[in-house]
Amino acid sequence: MRTSFSIGDTMRGLSWRQRTVIGLLVFVLLVAGAWAVSTSTRTGSGAESASAAPDDGSRWLGGASARPTPRDLPSDPAEEDADPGEEWIPRTPPTTGDAVVYAEAAAEALWSYDTRRATHGERTAELRAWMTGEEPYADWESVAAQIPTPEVWLQLGDNEQYATAQSESGHVPASFEEQLRARPDLITEAYVYVVTVTGQQSIHWRDGGRGAEERTVTLAVQCRPGEACALAGRLPTVAF
Length: 240
Description:
28% of the residues lie in helices and 19% in strands. It is built from seven helices and five strands.
């Protein structure tokens, strides 16, 4: 189900940088009249309702979304390799000019973390490395909102919590593609594309605890011709 919206509802409460990035994307999609951007949390199946906005940190501490029924648990080959004694190696962005490929990798980076081996500062630096260096289009706040606070990070570390993730599919929303075909000039200033990615996140904690859930996120990815893509931000709701 798609959400109704207005420009005022979208922009109120956002920082100037968020308004710059999201405003550009919403303008393109408004012309197509296809999907909604709002600050409310999406609650449907597959949406990132548990991580759509900053909160008190309780969602990171073994809430209901982190402990689904066993039938929801996917196989996770990476689990055997997650040794807390090994050196932590941050995920690095792929060198690609394909917005969908980049978005799928970026989604996995957003959904994966390891509080046993990485510090809060290292996790922050890891995600910053994915961002575009063009300040007018870099909505770091929307990405930083997906990192727990330093205090919660320490609590998660005490619980030996980490997460692995796998993207399953990524696509550019049809409304965005249609508008680009009709008005290709709209993209040639920022070269920021909208990509929606679905996947699975597996969460692990002390004494073999494990949970999993489906994830869906819509990312803004900048891919200038002849240059590697970079992350511009995370939209506050999912576009299909």
